[in-house]
């Protein structure tokens, strides 16, 4: 059940053209829950306001969902879309980033389906008072957000027009066999002691790799309270929910619209620091993710980017530019084909 949202957008921590809107979601045993929607709207000239915006994505909304131990902070990613005429929205899920409250267990969820409420509230806010009926919706998810949106899109056919996944967490890092082996054990712990913590295995190397790969042309100011150098604590109940999502992907889902998956060309194991970690995905096994991506729908494009990090848009300059170029090429092709198909459907029969 979705909850009514306030129509009052407030200035966001990103400043500039960004605003945020709290989305009340009721409460759980820890207290009140909120998600937070961030938006950046396309800038239009006086001519465009008077006579219409002819840009290719002027009829498109984008909804971004972040990954684990993360939140939205990438201004350039938003501007990639608003520069093409789209309205860009990013959702800080409950208990993450802007939505995290001091009394909450950071990032905790017992079932990924619970995020349906966050997404429903976001979509309602995006449509409120905007004439959004008939607009195209692009879902854009990174890592865990990619898993969440993939499952959501498959459960909700006919809503999205395209899905774009930035290194989506579609399979466990230690192989499908390992996942299937540990799932019953994790499930038992999740049932009786869901808040038990797993050992911290993140040595902070991924954060260091991002810092060393930082692009001066694309500066970012990261809040370490919302995106810590070492990931947030992993709890048994949350891990059980993730493994359930991976099992659903492995069984096969059917996203009914075109999907673009952006991945690094290779993985690197972060057991010790090396410069290789600044040019590879040190979080996921990209070969496993590429294979899993072929099970999420009938139209899947996989883009492998040499030198990319786990978040391809945080890579070194050359790989980052390549990621945006690949994304732009795919989006241009999709948008043109989708517009042509919609025009044909709307045209009277000959």
Keywords, separated by commas or semicolons:
about 350 residues; alpha/beta; nine-stranded mixed β-sheet; globular
Structure description:
With 350 residues, the chain is α/β, with parallel strands linked by helices. Helix content is 34%, strand content 17%. The protein has nine helices and nine strands. It has helices spanning 46-51, 75-82, 115-127, 144-155, 176-192, 205-213, 236-251, 286-293, 317-346, and strands at 10-11, 18-28, 31-40, 60-65, 87-92, 136-142, 162-166, 259-264, 300-305. The protein has a nine-stranded mixed sheet with strand order 1-2-3-5-4-6-7-8-9, with helices on both faces. Strand 2 and strand 3 form a beta hairpin. Helix 4 packs across helix 7 (236-251). The protein is globular, with a radius of gyration of 20 Å. The mean pLDDT is 93.
